[in-house]
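can u pls check wat happens w/ glutamic acid
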Amino acid sequence: MATIEWRSPASEMAVKQFEVAAEKLNLDSNVAARLKRPDRALILSVPTRMDDGRVHVFTGYRVQHNDVLGPFKGGIRYHPDVNLGEVSALAMWMTWKCSLVGLPFGGAKGGVACDPMELSRNELQGMTRRYTAEIFNFIGPEVDVPAPDMGTNEQVMAWVMDTYSQHKGYAVAEIVTGKPVEIGGTLGRREATGRGLVYTIIEAAKHLKIDLARCTAAVQGFGNVGSVAAKQLASVGIKVIALSDRTGGFYDPNGLPVECFLEYAAKNPELRGCPYGEPIGNADLLELKCDILVPAALGMQITKENAGRLKCRILAEGANGPTTLEADEIIKEKEIFVVPDVLANAGGVIVSYFEWVQDLQNFFWTEDEVNKKLRDILTKAFHEVLGVSQREKVGMRLAALMLGVNRVARAMLWRGLYA
Ligand code: GLU
């Protein structure tokens, strides 16, 4: 970002995207200068007792970008590539995402640099509890509400909730979202991001007058987002021709049996060995001829090297930041309709908001209510973005960022500078 501490490829990308939106909006320069940097960034040592008795010190982060619209909100990521720059970029994107879909939240993100697949359950629990204790003074139901992200799940959220609650002395369900339903989680949260992604694809297809029943899709990533997206795509009649996880991909031009992949994933830690389709690499999957391409894994997968070879009609970004700035320029020249990350994957944080509201009120909704409200919010946001894109003659990504940034900037101008 603006200063060296959090500079990284991801944060440079986030800041440049912001600068383009700020310029197009003619944003107040004082506000723009403030929004380029996070409000606060924590770097933590997370000592963890490993199963062999040794103590390993992991590095953890929590970056709080902006809370002008409400408490900070954002996931906790466990991945070997987690670093201050990446977490800062992800925190900034959370600010625009929450603002874009009209949630009363600011943006944050956290993480620990580790490979969760290499840790035992015991080690994962110890690391999570110590990480939570280290950020204890900086989070809270009205302050900063964490959630799952890549490499974390409802079990990790349950440990965060329990650790926070043990320190407080009573159960505080509303400290974290994406929890198991038994301890105050909401119905529909686990599926929310993938489900929301498909709602936005349905709107995109209507706009482009594409018949989804004749469409093919390729999905990169089979975690919480990719697996649910694949299931939902298949459920609306789309032929899923390629799937992958970090161990590699599977391709069948006649369609893959998504249910069998879900069953396989429920029993195995990775898709490697799943007996369907032809093998395909994660990079090759992106270049397949298909109607809908869903990158739902790591960031920066679509770059200036491969963007020219994309052959999809709709690019629906399940991952955060999967498309680099240079790739964006190339994609603009092609007939590809982009549903940008801050819109396409906002379903997760929208249902996190529903979970937080239910916890605060101790009054719980049915899954149908959750899904209907999710669809209403995403459909409205999609059409607002499309409207700006058409009026301002800009791409969907810039339109989404303009809407997200503008709401935050207006709130900042109303509230003024406390000095
Ligand atoms: N980690 C998810 C995201 O990137 C969800 C965040 C949340 O639910 O707070 O949007």
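The chain has 14 helices and twelve strands.
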